[in-house]
């Protein structure tokens, strides 16, 4: 019963929420007008450029993943690792949060690696990405503290930053964190979702240890910075695809990288709805009208997901072909 309810929430409720958000965001826009703008006002060469940048970032992610796996297993092939990454991204579009498990399964299958150990390296990856996200958040606040800080204070109806630490919201968030930790530890064995969180927490140590064993740490740091730089450029170059966003600067691109990443945290396939909402709201802060912001979010999100679907399908078809000689050799060795 609990398992059925969990599937219902994951595969029906969350996607429905995403679609509802999309409906609310675009219900007042004229479909014919959107089609006209998409045909006449969007310079798609910048969108194609963004897609290429996205593929490069995913290739760099595959190379970084290789570096994490090598110290605890054998180093997997780059093609298999890249294909596993792309199949994982595509799986996330169908089953939220299943991409990490899927890519670990794919790589374990074709490279004959320990699935558990590979999962540990993914935890290390996510810890590294979380660190980068926090670093980006600090950068955004440092570069635009007056603008974003003023907006935050206005939204929360506070007069100064110091008031945040005396507000009910601040202490409410602290209480929420404490209660969440208690529930995970106390009821983890009774509820599957809590057990998953507890197991994930226990994997952190294993993941961090794989980072310490990396042979070439400077190269690992380079790939990490490079990946997030490419993520930024994926958004920034798309500014030039529309007249309404062509004058936006680097600061806006970094801010959208942050807010869009936070939107992708939502347990919805491909961040649908949540990502659009965060990007449109951010662009509105910088004076971009809802209609133009909505079209920008629609085009960029659609382009990146089409890239993931295309590359993912190619990867799924290519993996058995690429690894056929290895499988045949394994069969022959078994019969000898």
Automatic annotation (TrEMBL):
It is found in: Cell membrane. The chain crosses the membrane at residues 7-26, 46-63, 130-152, 164-184, 219-242, 248-265, 295-319. It is a multi-pass membrane protein. Keywords: Cell membrane, Membrane, Transmembrane, Transmembrane helix. It holds the Pfam family LPG_synthase_TM. It comes from the Bacteria. Its main location: membrane. NCBIfam families: flippase-like domain. This is Flippase-like domain-containing protein. It comes from Carboxylicivirga marina.
């Amino acid at each position: 019963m609990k398992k059925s309810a969990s599937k219902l929430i994951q595969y029906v409720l969350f996607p429905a929420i995403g679609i509802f958000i999309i409906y609310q965001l675009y219900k007042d826009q004229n479909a014919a007008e959107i089609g006209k703008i998409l045909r006449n006002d969007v310079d798609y060469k910048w969108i194609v450029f963004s897609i290429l940048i996205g593929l490069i970032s995913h290739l760099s992610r595959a190379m970084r993943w290789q570096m994490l796996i090598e110290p605890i297993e054998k180093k997997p092939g780059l093609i298999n690792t890249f294909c596993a990454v792309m199949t994982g991204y595509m799986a996330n579009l169908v089953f939220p949060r299943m991409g990490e498990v899927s890519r670990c399964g794919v790589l374990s299958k074709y490279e004959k690696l320990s699935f558990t150990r590979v999962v540990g390296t993914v935890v290390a990856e996510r810890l590294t990405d979380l660190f980068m996200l926090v670093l980006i958040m600090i950068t955004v606040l440092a570069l635009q503290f007056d603008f974003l800080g003023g907006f935050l204070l206005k939204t929360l109806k506070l007069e100064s930053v110091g008031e945040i630490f005396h507000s009910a919201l601040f202490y409410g968030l602290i209480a929420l964190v404490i209660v969440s930790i208690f529930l995970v530890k106390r009821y983890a064995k009774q509820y599957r979702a809590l057990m998953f969180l507890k197991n994930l927490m226990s994997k952190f140590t294993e993941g961090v240890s794989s980072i310490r064993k990396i042979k070439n740490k400077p190269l690992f740091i380079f790939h990490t910075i490079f990946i997030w730089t490419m993520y930024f450029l994926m958004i920034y170059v798309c500014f030039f695809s529309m007249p309404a966003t062509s004058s936006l600067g680097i600061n806006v691109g970094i801010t959208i990288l942050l807010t869009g990443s936070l939107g992708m945290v939502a347990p919805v396939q491909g961040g649908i709805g949540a990502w659009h909402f965060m990007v449109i709201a951010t662009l509105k802060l910088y004076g971009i009208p809802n209609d133009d912001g909505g079209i920008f979010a629609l085009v960029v999100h659609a382009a990146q997901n089409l890239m993931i679907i295309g590359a993912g399908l190619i990867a799924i078809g290519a993996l058995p072909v690429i690894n056929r000689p290895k499988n045949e050799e394994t069969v022959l060795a078994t019969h000898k």
